[in-house]
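Why does residue order matter? Because the sequence determines the fold. Keep that principle in mind as you read this record.
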Amino acid sequence: MGVKSKKPTISSKLREALIESGINQAELSRRTALTTGYIAMLINGERGQKVSAETLIRLAKALDKPISYFLTSETHTGE
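Structure:
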């Protein structure tokens, strides 16, 4: 039996981006105008992969990432 590679989720990519950027959920909330509760839901995977395009745009801008960062398994470094 082989080990399957787990596909990154939006929540895992968001966690990774927060760590890389060094900001916390409160600061991300301020930058995106999303509530801290909603951001916590995204981070905890409570929204699944159901995130609006507008939310992805806000997250990408606030975290200085391309939108594709959240949608692919590739790692993007500050291009």
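The chain has five helices and no strands.
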